[in-house]
Structures are given as structure tokens and as C-alpha cells.
Amino acid sequence: MTRQQTHRRDFIKKTTALAAASSTVPFFSWSPKAFANQEKNDRPVVGCIGVGSMGTGDARQHARFGDVAAVCDVDSRHADRAKNDERIGKGKADAYKDYRELLDRNDIDVVSIVTPDHWHIKIAIEALQAGKHVFIQKPLTLTLEENQLIRNACKKYNDQVFFIGTQQRSDRGRFMRAVNMVQKGLLGDIEKVTVGINGGPKGGPFPTSNPPAELDWNFWLGQAPYVDYIDKRCHYQFRWWYEYSGGKFTDWGAHHVDIAVWALNEDKEGQGPVSFDGTDAQHPVPFEDGYPTVDDCYNTSHDFAVDCKFDSGTTMVITSRGDNGVSFEGTKGRIFVNRGKITGTPIEENWDKDMYTDADVSALYKGKPHEGHKQNFYRCISEGGLPVSDVYSHVQTMNSCHLAAIAARLGRVIQWDPQAEKIVGDEQAASMFGREQREGFEIPRV
After folding, report:
1. How many domains does one find in the chain?
2. pLDDT digit string (tens) for 394-424?
3. What is the number of other CB atoms lying within 10 angstroms of the CB of residue 420?
């Protein structure tokens, strides 16, 4: 670390501590002024990898807390746009196509990774190896194996903050209130949780074409098998191909399954469901042995209801049917929560009156004051401690998401040993634990 970096990071710690000490409000929100100083480099330096639609929004938020010095995207249109965005690069940031050039820069403190899912873990581990703090968008991983790889890396590089963009964990008025109500036992014993995540789209057959000149298609594919370019495989639509994502199981599942397992206190290592019933799941194309038999159509499930059983007897149903959101059904009451509302008799009658205090919220926030989602990330960089969206709990969420997808792809019940982290009694299902990575795009083992 250079002397300049040491000075900047020391300053961030000192100014944050000063702001906390001088505040008379126990739970305050940060502002860019918390990092202000007469010297230009006293704010964290940020590099943004992946600056498409979601990446642009994240980059603008990071720019509230740090200076975006570099942007990167395999599509040069995205990189150039972010470089010249007055709320991101301001025409001064360097633009790259290869993320490794960005990671090689010693002046960058924080890396934001908002790429397609199949690139997340390779870049994230290499960012940790390069000494960066990491913000990464959901879903964290592509496979069960990647869950283990990133958890191992974060344990090794535990002096760096690793933060996932599951912003529902910072929603005090809805999701956090639901979690608190369940954890306090106000609904009684939870018998059933329904996780509504909608179904993926149908589409295709799509024609192949030459990739746009500004897109490095081979690099975009990364670890995935090489195929001819189809525009509907790329950018936002990558979500509907199992080659690059898990469809709705990992897209919305990364949000709502996360809330479910958090509320149930099933988000620690060795916890989670023990069986996944994928018999009630359909796909838009024919499947054989868990893999699509055509390669020119969306292939992730569009209609499903996967029953996930916990040892406790609780059932979690991950479904495309019904309202998007999470419902908790207990022996005393039922509530439903999504991004627009939280409803149910326990809410209408305020069963959590005097039981959802600032202290309760702080406990859910791992002892930190409640504030905006990315504010929690930058606070943890300066103060230490685990963020509210930590890698260890999110790995447990992603285990359930991936296992539900595997069960749906095979159309049967699979058994999971959460302590050993193995699919048991089904060799074919167990073979889907990880995927072979294309030569030159292997994920580091640390």
C-alpha cells in the first residue's frame, strides 16, 4: 500500500469516527460530506466493472462516497457512456475493456462488480487478491461450487469488506420489520413460507448474427462454452439462459429467498433446507438429463413451485405463481411483504409495538446504525465488521436458489446435506454441483 493510500484510508476512519461522535442522533445517514477534505484523494477511489443499465445506477451511487477513477465493460459503448457520465466518470475516468487492467491499479480501493452472473466470482476473487474492497451485485454465484470458492476467499482475505447488493436487507419499513416479527416469534412457529418470484419469459428461436464491433463476445462468454452470437443471450437477457444464470430462481430468488432464510434464522453455514421437490416445474424448451436440447431459445423455467423442506418441519415454497413477495404463515398469524407493502393482521394490529425499536433494527444490522444500503458498505470499510449483506449468509441463500433450480431442471426431488454441503443419493444431480470452466477463464482457488 502506498503512503497516499494509507493517508486516505486513515482519514476516512478518522472523519467517520468524528461524525459519529458529534452526532446527537443515534442512527444517522452518511452524506458525501462525511468524506470531504481539502485534499482531493481523501475520498475512496472506486473502479466499476460492468456499467450496463444496473451497473450505471450502482456506479452513480458509489460516486456519492468515492471518486470513480476507472470504469470497465466488454461493451465499449457502456464504458464510454459511464466515463462521460457527469455522475460517474465526469469525463476523467479511465475506460477499460479488460477488468484486469483496472484491478492492477494500486490507487483503487473499492471495486464494484455488476457483470452477468457467470463472471461474478472470478472477478470477485481476483479483486480480493488485489487488495480491494468488493461490492457485487446479486445473484452472487452461478453454481454451488462457486459458493464455496467465494466463501473460502472471503475467509482468507477477511480484512477486506465484501458486500452484496441485496438492498431489501436495508428496508426498515417492510422487509426488516417482517424479519424482526418472525424472529421474535410473534407469528408463532412458522409452518410455511411462500416465496413468490414470478416466472421467466419464453422466447425464441432466435437467429445468430455477428456480434457488434464494440462488443468482445468471446470475453463476454468467459467461462461459459463458446457459441455463436445471439443478441438475446447478451446483456439483460442473459438471465434466461442456464449457461449464464439461474433464471428467476437466482434473479428474484436472491432477494426473496434471502429474506425467508434470514427471518427463519437459517442463513448460517450448515443450515438450510434438506430436500427440494422439483416435480412441479416446466421449461420453455425440452430438457434431457437436466440440460436443454435446443440452443436458440430461452431455457430457464417459466412455471414452477419447488417445495423446500427444513429439518424443523417448515416448508418454503419457491414459486412463479401468485404475488411477487414473501408470505410467512405461523401458528399465531400470517404476514405478506414485498417492495410495495407489508400486510396481515399482525401488521394492522401492530403486534410488534415496542418490539421493533432502534436497538432491534441495529441488531439486524449487526450492531451498525441503520442507513442506506451502500452507506452500510462504506461504513464497514471505515469501521470494520460484517455488513448487513454479508457473503456468509448470502451463500446460504444461493445454496437454496441453485438447489431449487437443479431440482426443477431434473424434475424430481433431490436431497441436500447442508452440513456437508453435498447432494446425496443422486449422482446425476450431484454432478451439477459445479461446471467446467473454459480454458483461460478458470476461477482461482484460494
Report:
1. 2
2. 999 999 999 999 999 999 999 999 999 999 9
3. 9
